[in-house]
Amino acid sequence: MLEIPDHLDYGLSIVFIGFNPSIRSGEVGHHYANPRNNFWRILQRSELTPRLYEAYEDQDLLKLGYGFTNIVSRPTRGMDDITREEYAEGRKILHAKLCKYQPKVACFVGKGVYTEYSCTSKVDWGFQPESVVDEIYEFVAPSSSGLVRMPMNEIIGIYEQLQRFIAEGE
Question: In terms of Cα–Cα distance, which of 26, 60, 27, 22 is closest to 43?
């Protein structure tokens, strides 16, 4: 099983941060590759992307100013398979990546990703009042997993807040 490469660069508008890759993503080497994951549809429907991208095009989003990484790099069936030690190590690695690349926004794809990273227990959707890394806006968006029970229109509405913020900054 492959470790999925990060897609990071300097000057990005958004870095999307997931828990860790799915088994399917590990098999094909691309972010959000599980066909039941709604990530690519959410980006398109919220107008963060001009068209529907496929997982195999993940590196192409660097041209749009978007990068990808995870708090834990090891592919698993689910977040319950991630150990406390992996989260602790991943937290340090992720912090170093964000400090190095300084994206405008760190978008955490799921509340649990953000709580693991920030060591906080309760967060709301959207922009966070305080950032772990100075000068980076931290945004918490719903997970794009097909297991999420939130209505798709609500999920898209939250991602649209991010789209408006990025559009206003250009």
Answer: 60
Catalytic residues: 20, 31
pTM of the model: 0.95
The residue written with tokens 């798709």 in the block is: 152
Q: Which CATH class is domain 14-169?
A: alpha beta
Task: Report yes or no: 15 and 117 within 8 Å, Cβ to Cβ.
Answer: no
Q: Kindly report the three-state secondary structure assignment for every residue of 62-107.
A: HHHCEEEEECCCCCECCHHHCCHHHHHHHHHHHHHHHHHHCCCEEE
Q: How far is CA 98 from CA 25, 36, 92, 157, in A?
A: 22, 28, 10, 26
CA distance 31 to 25: 6
pLDDT, position 1: 62
Mean pLDDT across 38-62: 97
Could you report the per-residue pLDDT of 137-153, keeping only the tens digit for each? 999 999 998 778 899 99
